[in-house]
Amino acid sequence: MRFTRTSKALGIVAIAALALTGCGGGGSTGGSSTAAGDPNKVITAYSNEPQNPLLPANTNEVYGGRVVNLLFEGLRSYDANGKAVNALADSIESSDAQNWTIKVKQGTKFTNGEAITAKTFVDSWNFAANSKNLQNNGFFFESIAGYDDVSAVNSVKGADGKTTTTPAPKADTMSGLQATDDSTITVKLAQPEADWSLRLGYSAFYPLPSAALTDPKTFGENPVGNGPYKFEKQGSWVHDQSITLVKNADYKGTREAKNGGVTFKFYTDPGPAYTDLQSDNLDITDVLPSNALKTYVNDFPDRNATKAVATDSTLNIPGYNPNFQGEAGKLRRQALSYAINREEIAKVVFNGTRTPAKAFAPPVIDGFKEGLKGSEVLNFDPAKAKDLWAQADKIQPYDASKPLQIASNTDGGNKEWIDAVANGFKNNLGIQAEIQPFAKFAEVLNLRKSQQLPGLTRAGWQGDYPSLYNFLGPVWATGASSNYEKYSNPEFDKLLKEGLAAKSTDEANAKFNQAQEILFQDLPGLPLWDQARPIVWSNNIVKAETGWNGEILYYGITAK
Amino acid sequence: MIRFILRRLLQVIPVFLGTTLLVYYMVFALPGDPIAALFGDRQPPQAVIDTLRSQYHLDQPFWVQYGLFLKNLFTFNLGNDFTGQPIAASLARVFPVTAMLAVEALAIQAIFGVAFGVFAGLRRGGWFDSTVLVASLVVIAVPTFVLGFVFQLVFGVKLGWAKPTVGANADWVTLLLPAVVLGLVSFAYVLRLTRASVSENMNADYVRTATAKGLSRPRVVLAHILRNSLIPVVTYLGANLGGLMGGAIVTEGIFNVPGVGNKLYQAVLRSEGPTIVSIVSVLVLVFVVANLLVDLLYAWLDPRIRYDQ
Questions:
Q1: Taking a C-beta distance cutoff of 8 angstroms, is the pair A424, A335 a contact?
Q2: Which residues 145-164 in chain A show a CB within 8 A of chain B?
Q3: For A460, which residue in chain B has the nearest alpha carbon?
Q4: pTM beyond 0.90
Q5: β-strands A354-356, A529-537: how paired?
Q6: pLDDT tens across A542-556, in order?
């Protein structure tokens, strides 16, 4: 899932240290009679207006995502630790990581009574992948054979030199996707992918009732799903105000609701939400205003929790910058990394709400390994930094005519840590460094895409599904969708491909970790910190927790 | 009179074109691709981006975009915002809320401001006068957002007299706290304007005449002093109504009021030209109508003022 503007803000704002955790669980003040909770009480939760109609394959931002995840249940779901467990799938099997057979649980229904069969999934996936349906997450099906035909587009170069891409599917269904009977889906991938089944819990893979396929826009206003919750009534989504969900009594599964429903109240700013929580006018939030980061543990004793989330943050160094090319460039990138005092910045600037990064992927992901070869560049070592910088200058002198700039949007509290990093470069390397400020994220993104940023840039990545590959492939593989600095190393690509083709997850993870070692050699970006997300709740709630990606597990909340 | 109103309404046209053009151009000139900004680090397929771009005419030059906006406006079809919601529907949602807030704030500042101002002006230098002068100075000096947070904390969280935020289903009661905050600064100005005006008119010849004729004190104060003192106050209140409608961004933010200010703020963040300009268009109309009403009130307040030659 991408970083929305808001989630960037919350990335900065809502992250607290593992050290601070204390994991304030347990009903605090309530007597024993309330400990079991009231299963019928509706809780209120912080959110904001979803940016798209609520279709799973079209929802790629956090505020729509949290609603969709509660309305739908897929073949698999992720438990609190990010482990994928079967949900609507009875079994998912493959002998060669390329041909998959999925057995679908029989007898489940959407809340409108429509039965869910193998065909439901096949139709939903074909719909999502079809380019003319313009689903934001359509590319999640790219591994399936026949995706290229279904998702085909037509690119026309206009008179002004700009290309315009329009959908032009050559087929309506993916050839590799079949429903052989009511309970069996067979999937042929274009190439072997060991971690493919891990993706099946992601929202793009949720089943859709037939009404959604014929009129997605209308459906997206009043979605009908099969998850632990359903819309309270037609029009439960009051735009710019709230969305009200109630428990789906027919839902049988691992995510059964322990409360009567969830009302998402929309806030344009986390400040009022925090005030509401202090007066029990709101029950839970996962976004804290930045000035509350120091105080939330005192403001909500026994009513807060903090857990590591699967996000990455890096400082990317574009390959087109002449100062960072060739052997000298490599040494300079290492020098920059050694010159960042991650420990101190995490402590001072983030009030100890972040921890120094240990690799390119976050530690919460299965297969994460600490101490990868080359990861010593993440240590703070000014002497070594100076030394490497001097060595690089011998090979090719540094062009110091312009200061080294670090591009970032300055909303959401980025300026402080970038100033700290720039000062580290100044003091330890003796070069001029400064922030290149932008008012808005979009400006930075545009310049990154068109390769026009003169210096370094801040980058962030939040995982779609809990797999090492998801933190490496989309960001660093050649030509990948979010590889804006256009890093390319055939060896890295090869290791990723081998990892995908591996027979077992362990084998695959070993390859992915090898691929990370290549990244540590090349340092196309400098890993900065790992994040954790604090949540706080009101006196109306017994206990709450977040999942692997920082999303609150709303269904598990018990109200007093 | 009718000719005067017509003339004023005709003036709306160039004002309207000018402001929308200016605002639309400023939004257009904002750097960054608004469609790409909708998605962040994980970009959707290019076909999605291009389709959205052509749907919102962002691939067209400025004049075409502005022309299409005007055409839509005159056919009463404002189109959709970037989340796919009809702009007309969201305006219909946010304007009543903000109108309620503005009317409530205006009522607070008009009623209390004028009343306090009259009392202070009539007894200039007295203890009441000195107290409200100092108090109003404090109110003017403290920024709105500080007042907002303090009121929210004291009355919303600590005392629990009011809900600290408004949220969905805004009504007169839930909007009272933000309305007080919003109205307070202007209240101080209204008070001071009324006070100055009243204390000046108190010594006017016609007041002495009225008193000499044997009119009762309330009659002298209300019909002679107050009515003649109201012109600057009414001018200020009229101009203020537009400001209250559009300038409540800070207050609406603090109290999470689902009104015009919040919508405008979000639209600016997303560089949504059509939404911003639609809101501004309505605000222009509000401004113009409010000023027209003020001008018409002048004649009632001071019969010497005539509109037609």
A1: no
A2: 151, 153, 155, 162, 164
A3: B41
A4: no
A5: antiparallel
A6: 989 998 888 899 999
